[in-house]
């Protein structure tokens, strides 16, 4: 077996779903690279010897991949191990290099605002830009092109890993199939931007972006149910570190799943009792405005119960114990979370399911912008 044929057979934390092909030597090399990168991403520090131990790859295979990644600017040497090896030699530590490569990340998921940044490989903004839109103004593709152009203007093109766009809606290989918030249908944003800039473009659903930030910079492990609740409500699921996008790329689009089809409030989609009408932050604020203050707590508690009722089935089906909810503090508060937890316990308690915990996401306002940069890194490592 040559070094190139030696491949790790476990799971790849930065794996992009839906790719099945026959392994060639370059595939094996890419997998080894992906694996080593994922052991260091985002904040790991390992020596070459430790990478070898943790991957099962030979010293030569590790060193081959590591040297390429050092040259490329993906990783750097960063001090020495504190303990010595048997031979009395301290290994050089490797970590992600945040100083050289850059990502252009743009977030289209905010209301009336487009935010953009040049970030490092950990998605931390090094330079920011934003455009405020009027209340009824919808963003067009040409505005995004101009925006990328401005963010790119001061950068050395050889240092740009890719452009990441975070967008609400159903996204199929870079084509925004349907986005109610943007008012877009079948917009091939990836092709347009790649033609214009000659840089790889990743377009990722906003809830998936937020979930990736929670996974890599928050408290989540490799299995997670993530719910984003603001003007609408969406979810994303991570299984063994692979986001589940679904057969038609609409996995997580739960806003118009009804949980009270007979008596729930009417929804513009034609049904009654859709999640969005029952428990989105916008809907809840509207309902609370219509009742005396003493009844508002009850509305939030009921929303928590609805949320848990909706999530009980995926929890049972997927055996996920970590449920993270991102949303504004006036809605996703302890009252809602306590009510949701009690309801979930009531619905799911059994001897063969570990207790699932519903918690509030602690990641800050850059959650989607940062996740979009992480998405670029994932694709870069996978498709190299
Ligand atoms: Zn609906």
Q: Can you walk through the features of this model?
A:
By secondary structure, this protein is α/β, with parallel strands linked by helices. It folds into 3 domains: 3-96, Winged helix-like DNA-binding domain superfamily/Winged helix DNA-binding domain (Arc Repressor Mutant, subunit A, Orthogonal Bundle); 102-210 and 367-383, Nucleotidyltransferase, domain 5 (2-Layer Sandwich); 219-360, Nucleotidyltransferase, domain 5. It has helices at residues 25-40, 48-55, 59-72, 141-152, 189-197, 206-217, 275-279, 281-289, 296-318, 334-348, 367-383, and strands at residues 46-47, 75-80, 92-96, 102-107, 113-119, 125-132, 160-167, 170-172, 175-179, 184-188, 201-205, 224-229, 233-239, 242-243, 322-326, 357-360. A 5-stranded mixed sheet has the order 6-5-4-7-11, sandwiched between helices. α10 links the parallel β15 (322-326) and β16 (357-360). α2 (48-55) crosses α3 (59-72). The longest helix has 23 residues, at 296-318. It is globular. Mean pLDDT is 92; it is low at 1-5. It binds zinc ion. Residues 256, 267, 269, 271, 274, 276 line the site of zinc ion.
Quaternary structure? single chain
Distance between the termini: 23 Å
Structural class, judged by helices and strands?
Answer: alpha/beta
C-alpha-based Rg, rounded: 22 Å
Order of helices and strands: HEHHEEEEEHEEEEHEHEEEHHHEHEH
How many strands? 16
CATH class of the largest domain: Alpha Beta
Pfam families: ROK
Family: Belongs to the ROK (NagC/XylR) family.
Organism: Bifidobacterium aerophilum
InterPro entries: ATPase_NBD, ROK, WH-like_DNA-bd_sf, WH_DNA-bd_sf
